[in-house]
Design goal:
The complex is a heterodimer of chains A (about 325) and B (about 325). Chain A is an alpha/beta fold and about 325 residues long. Chain A is about 30% helix and about 25% strand. The chains are: A alpha/beta (about 325), B mainly alpha (about 325). At the A-B interface, helix 2, helix 3 and helix 6 of A face helix 12 and helix 13 of B.
C-alpha cells in the first residue's frame, strides 16, 4: 500500500487553508493545518466547535461547502496531491482511499433508500462486482457490526432506525468502500452514553480488523482518548499541539491544551469550567497566535512574532512561543 | 372514503352557491313574457320545490351519472362536458408538457447552480410569467406572430389571410379526427393521419406555451427550492464521500428527494388549469370546459355550472389520489 515516500505517511496535510465566501464576507475556518496520519494508526482531533475540525475532514475529501475553497497548503495522499486530482480521480479517491462517517447518523442516510441499496451502492461504487456479491457483503458487514438480524435491517429505511443503529449502518457504509483511512466526524455526539461506548468500540474493532487508519474528531476529549493513539488539539483553524495520547492527556505544552484539560478534568469532580475570553472569530486571518488574548502565559513575543513551529520528536509538534513544557 | 366526503362537500357548496345567484327563468325565457308563463316554467323546472327537495333530486340524479340538462340549449350537461372536457384536458396536458420542458430543467439547474446563467434565465421567465395575465400574453402572441409582420406585396395581401393564426382546435375547413379519446392529437394518430396530428399539435402550441409561461413559474420555483434543499442535505455529501459520481448522486439522491413537492404542484397546476385556463380558451377560441362554464354562468344555467364544478372536483380528487399513490410508492416514510 505504501510507496516508499519520505515520511511514510498515508495522509499528509501541510499548511491547509480554507476560505468560504459568504454574504457577509469571507470566513477562514482553516488557517494552516498540519497533520500526518500513518497507515493503520488512530489519530484524534479535539477542539471547540468552530475550531475547524469538521472542515479539516472536508478538506481531506475535497468536499467544500458552497462558496468554499481550499486556498492554500497541500493535501497529500501517499505523496500524491489530492488537490491536483481531476473529477474521475477524485471520485476514485473518495471511498476507496478515504471514507467518512458523519456526525448526524440518520440525516447522513438517504431517507428514500433502503439500507441494503445504500450499502450495495457504496460497495459497487468502489469495485467492479456483481449485485449478488455486494448484497452478500452488506449482510456480512451488518453482522460484523453486531446486528443480530441483518436481513431485517437491510430492508429497513433510515427513519426506522434508532440513532445507534443508524450510526452502525453509517460505519458499514464507510467500510463498504474499503478505505485505508476512515474519517469520523463526531460519530457518537448525538448518542446516549452506553450507545456511544458501544459504537466507539465497534468502530475501533472494525477499523483495526481491516488494518485501516482512523482520524477521529470530537469536542469530547474522553471519546477521543478512548480510541486515539495520537491526539491533536485544534484552535482557530490550526493544530496547535500534536502528540501521543499519554503526553497530551497528562502534560500538554500549549496553554490552550492545558486549559482544555483543566476544563474537562474529571478527577477533581468539580463542574466543568470554561476558558475565559472569547472564542476567536474566523472572519479574521490570524498572523499572530490566535489564543494570545485568552492566554494566561502571554509574553511580548506573542504580540510581535508569528507562531514558531516546534518539532519535538517524530510525532510531536507544538505551535507556541512558550516552547515545550517541562515539569 | 375521504374522496367521497370531499366530493359531497363540493356538491353541497356548489349547489348552494349556484342556487343563490338568482333565477334562471328570465334568462331562459326573456323578460317579455307573462307571469303565467314564468310560473308554468318554474313549475316545470322544479324551482317551486323546497331547496332541500331540489338538492335531493339533483343528488339522486347525479349518483346515476345524470348532471342535468342545459336550460338554454336543452342538451344534457354530461354530453356537452364529454365533448368539451377532452379539449381542455388536451390543452392542459400539453401545457404541463411545455412546463416540464422549461420549468423543471431550469429549476433543477437553478437549484444546483444558484448563481448560474440558467438560474437567472429561469427566474427572469418566472418573474415575467407571474406578472403578465395569460389572456393578454395569448393576444400578444397572436398579434406579434400573425398581425405585426408586414403586409406582403399584392396579390398576397396581409399575412393573417395567408397564414391564419391557429385558433380553435383545428383550422376552418379541416375535419377533426374520428372521436376515440377526444384528444385530437391522439385520435389523429390512431387514425394514422400524421398530417392531421401535426395540424392539431400546431393548434395546441400557442395556447400551451401561453398557459405554461403563466402557470409554470411556481413549478420552476418549487423545483429550484426542492433541489437546492436536497443538494445541501448531509446524505448528498455522504454519497459523494463514498465515491459515487455526480450523475448518480443527482438521480439517485437529489432528484428523488426533490420530487415530492414538484409532483404535488404539477397535480395542483393540472387541476387548476382545468377551470383556470378559461381566458386563454376564449382568446384561442378553444371549445373547452372553461368557456362552457362561463357560458353557463352568463345564462344562470345552474346545471351547466354545477356540472363543470363537479367534474373539475372529480379530476382534482383523482389526480391527488394518483399523486398520493406515486408518493406512497416512492417515499418509505409515508408507508409507515
Amino acid at each position: 500500500m505504501n510507496s516508499g515516500q519520505a515520511n511514510g505517511a498515508l495522509l499528509s496535510l501541510s499548511g491547509v487553508e480554507v476560505t468560504i465566501n459568504t454574504l457577509s464576507g469571507p470566513v477562514h475556518p482553516l488557517q494552516g493545518v498540519d497533520l500526518d496520519v500513518y497507515p493503520g494508526e488512530t489519530v484524534g482531533l479535539v477542539g471547540e466547535s468552530g475550531s475547524g475540525k469538521s472542515m479539516t475532514l472536508r478538506a481531506i475529501l475535497r468536499l467544500m461547502p458552497p462558496g468554499g475553497a481550499i486556498t492554500g497548503g497541500s493535501v497529500k495522499w501517499q505523496d500524491r496531491s489530492v488537490l491536483g486530482l481531476d473529477t474521475d480521480e477524485l471520485q476514485a479517491y473518495r471511498g476507496s482511499d478515504v471514507a467518512m462517517i458523519y456526525q448526524n447518523p440518520v440525516s447522513a442516510l438517504d431517507p428514500m433508500l433502503s439500507v441494503e441499496r445504500q450499502i450495495v451502492d457504496a460497495f459497487k461504487a468502489n469495485r467492479a462486482t456483481s449485485d449478488g456479491v455486494a448484497e452478500e457483503f452488506a449482510r456480512d458487514a451488518l453482522r460484523d457490526l453486531e446486528f443480530g438480524n441483518p436481513d431485517v435491517i437491510l430492508n429497513r429505511y433510515p427513519h426506522q432506525l434508532s440513532g445507534g443503529m443508524a450510526q452502525r449502518v453509517n460505519i458499514a457504509l464507510a467500510l463498504a468502500c474499503g478505505p485505508s483511512l476512515i474519517l469520523a466526524d463526531e460519530p457518537t455526539t448525538g448518542l446516549d452514553m452506553t450507545t456511544q461506548i458501544r459504537v466507539l468500540d465497534l468502530l475501533e474493532q472494525q477499523v483495526h480488523a481491516r488494518n485501516a487508519a482512523l482520524l477521529f474528531i470530537s469536542h469530547d476529549l474522553r471519546a477521543v482518548s478512548r480510541v486515539a493513539r495520537n491526539i491533536g488539539i485544534m484552535y482557530a483553524g490550526q493544530v496547535v499541539e500534536f502528540g501521543p495520547r499519554e503526553r497530551i492527556l497528562t502534560d500538554p505544552s500549549h496553554p490552550y491544551a492545558r486549559a482544555l484539560l483543566e476544563c474537562m478534568d474529571l478527577r477533581t469532580g468539580e463542574r466543568p469550567r470554561s476558558i475565559p475570553g472569547l472564542v476567536p472569530r474566523m472572519t479574521e486571518e490570524y498572523e499572530l497566535c490566535a489564543f494570545r488574548d485568552r492566554c494566561p502565559s502571554r509574553m511580548a513575543a506573542c504580540d510581535e512574532e508569528p507562531l514558531p513551529v516546534h518539532k519535538l520528536g517524530r510525532r510531536r509538534r507544538l505551535l507556541c512561543h512558550l516552547g515545550p513544557h517541562h515539569g | 372514503m375521504v374522496l367521497a366526503v370531499v366530493l359531497l362537500a363540493v356538491v353541497i357548496i356548489g349547489f348552494t352557491i349556484t342556487r343563490s345567484t338568482g333565477t334562471p327563468l328570465y334568462a331562459s325565457l326573456g323578460v317579455a313574457v307573462s307571469e303565467a308563463i314564468i310560473e308554468q316554467r318554474a313549475e316545470e323546472m322544479g324551482l317551486n320545490e323546497p331547496i332541500v327537495v331540489q338538492f335531493w333530486t339533483y343528488l339522486t340524479h347525479l349518483l346515476q351519472g345524470d348532471l342535468g340538462v342545459s336550460r338554454i340549449s336543452r342538451i344534457p350537461v354530461a354530453e356537452d362536458i364529454a365533448l368539451k372536457l377532452p379539449a381542455t384536458a388536451e390543452m392542459v396536458f400539453f401545457t404541463l408538457m411545455v412546463s416540464f420542458i422549461w420549468a423543471i430543467p431550469l429549476g433543477v439547474r437553478a437549484g444546483l447552480r444558484p448563481d448560474g446563467k440558467l438560474a437567472r434565465l429561469g427566474e427572469g421567465m418566472a418573474q415575467f410569467g407571474v406578472s403578465v395575465p395569460a389572456f393578454w400574453l395569448g393576444l400578444l402572441f397572436i398579434f406579434l406572430l400573425y398581425f405585426l409582420p408586414p403586409r406582403l406585396p399584392e396579390p398576397l395581401g396581409p399575412l393573417p389571410s395567408l397564414f391564419p393564426p391557429p385558433l380553435g382546435r383545428v383550422g376552418s375547413g379541416i375535419t377533426p379526427p374520428e372521436m376515440v379519446t377526444g384528444l385530437y392529437t391522439v385520435d389523429a394518430l390512431i387514425a394514422g393521419d400524421f398530417r392531421l396530428a401535426w395540424h392539431t399539435l400546431w393548434h395546441l402550441i400557442l395556447p400551451a406555451v401561453t398557459l405554461s409561461l403563466t402557470s409554470g413559474p411556481p413549478l420552476f420555483r418549487v423545483t429550484r427550492s426542492a433541489v437546492s434543499e436536497a443538494v445541501s442535505s448531509p446524505f448528498v455529501e455522504a454519497a459523494y464521500s463514498y465515491g459515487l459520481g455526480r450523475r448518480t448522486v443527482l438521480i439517485r439522491d437529489v432528484l428523488r428527494n426533490a420530487s415530492p413537492p414538484v409532483l404535488n404542484l404539477a397535480a395542483m397546476t393540472f387541476g387548476y388549469l382545468i377551470g383556470g385556463g378559461v381566458l386563454v380558451e376564449v382568446v384561442f377560441s378553444w371549445p373547452g370546459i372553461g368557456s362552457y362554464a362561463v357560458w353557463g354562468m352568463d345564462n344562470s344555467d345552474y346545471d351547466v355550472v354545477l356540472g363543470v364544478v363537479i367534474i373539475a372536483a372529480v379530476i382534482y380528487v383523482i389526480l391527488y389520489f394518483i399523486v398520493d399513490l406515486i408518493q406512497f410508492a416512492m417515499d418509505p416514510r409515508l408507508r409507515d
